[in-house]
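Appendix B. One record, verbatim.
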Amino acid sequence: MAEEEEVHDQDLDDVSKREEEKKASMSASLSIWPPTQRTRDAVIKRMVETLSTPSTLSKRYGSIPIEDASAAARLIEEEAFSAASNSSTSTKPVDAYEDDGIEILQIYSKEISKRMLEAVKARAPPPSPSDHSQTTPPAPAVGEESSAFESESSHS
């Protein structure tokens, strides 16, 4: 009988260990931050599509050739990932790193958006002279009148 109890206790220990391992693997798989490499690759792929095919950004700023879009997307993602990771470790204690995964993910997303916009703006052709809606008058030189109204009123 003692042998049966010992085997039974060992079986219960094995079951408990397996349940703990299962819980640990489930919590790890539900982690929001850091994203898996597969997720990061999907983000890069989506950025390449946005930068190189008709999209809201390309309609306004022009599309980027796919080779350039691919290189830009990889760089943007790496920089955004680094910025998000650094922001979480510099402002939060280590044990809070997993607790605020959503906040870190938001930083990552905002960094990607900001950097994509900077990339397309940097490549955008300058506005044409015929497009008066986007041009601004040149700033007056030092010592010049600041407006036509002031220069006309000073000559009266």
